[in-house]
Amino acid sequence: MASTTTTRSERTARLCAEAALFMRDYVLSRVSHDLRSPLNAIHSWAYVLDRKIDNADAAAQRALSGIRTGVEQQVHLLETLVDTTRAETRKLQIERAPFELDALIADTVADARAALADERGVSLAVEGVPTGVTLDAGRERIAQALWLLLVFAAETGAHGSTVTLTVSATAAAAQFELRWQASLDTLTDDALPHVLEPFGRAQAREPQEVGRFPWVLALCQRVAEAHGGRFEAQPLVQGEAALFTLNVPAGAA
């Protein structure tokens, strides 16, 4: 029993580290994109000012030179630090192989219960299993994404609540839908046990734009995209029903 507990604890730690890694990648991509637009505008306006300012005005020329230098330094930082750091997870590797979907679901749900759901008093209910389906896809990556969704739902579920995982699958694709009632206050309640990274939990409490998802779930999006699928998350609203959908196309085994 001790060995099983240790193994599950180690797996939980590894899964949390993977989630944090892809959240970092997502945040860096947002930073890179959001900084480049104003930097390009500053650079363009500097050239406009250059044509308007008297070349004999040494102070103005030094100011423009400082603006251009500052922009170039920021772009260099983006290219050498942000973009280089993102290279580690920019291309997600998928090792495709046939596997039984029912076994993956059973193992992943058990891991999520042991990681947080049981300790938080959140029930995980599964519908649509057994499927009897064998998929040819990235088993470990799908398991990571599904585990992260279940644990996130447990993080935002009140004590005694139920998270329902509905599975629909064929040999060509699998779709997972998670439904539960969101209790956002639980994300940052220090009196409760937590598994996911504090920054990611805190950010998930902020209002989400339509079509956006909490940053801590970036791994789910990358796994879906790597398989040619999609990840959709309705904005989380305190006390209202939440719905996340992970769709993963796969080759027939």
From TrEMBL:
Reactions that this protein is recorded to catalyse: ATP + protein L-histidine = ADP + protein N-phospho-L-histidine
Keywords carried by this UniProt record: Kinase, Phosphoprotein, Transferase
Entry keyword Kinase: yes
Assigned EC number: 2.7.13.3
One Gene Ontology MF term: phosphorelay sensor kinase activity
Enzyme class of the recorded protein, top EC level: transferase
PROSITE patterns: HIS_KIN
Domain Histidine kinase: 30-252
Domain of life: Bacteria
The keyword Transferase is assigned to this record: yes
Protein name: histidine kinase
Lineage, highest ranks first: Bacteria, Pseudomonadati, Pseudomonadota, Betaproteobacteria, Burkholderiales
